[in-house]
Amino acid sequence: MTTVFAHFASKEALVFDQDEHHEERLVGAVANRSPDQSLLNALRAEALNAARWFSTPKSISFWTLVESSAALRGYTSHMQARHEQALVSAIASDPEAPTSATACRVLARFTLDAYSLARDAENPLAAVEEIFDLLEPGFAPAAGRQSAKPLK
Q: What is the pLDDT of residue 11?
């Protein structure tokens, strides 16, 4: 037991042994993207990569287990908050970063929400595509945006 908990902080952490790897992939999608790939498309590609796993029997069993336990659901929330903060930092450091801290947080949060929405969807890949299609107009480069009309 001592050896196990030297590597894992809690019982719940044992279940999420890929936690650090997942965070590295999220941050890497931004930090290691090719110069010809947009920030949003890099995040989409990483979400699509994850969505391919969501339809597998192993993933379905894993998330059924997580949803059946209040402790695991709570751990998931804390884990997602850590991933969001890491992703916000990566996005904010990117040359294509949105101009405000709020927009960086929104993009990170919506990206992570895409994972859970895709996981629950009948077709995870189609769900990711739809989600990022909805996000794209809001995160288009500023030069391509039309200004909003003032309210009367």
A: 56
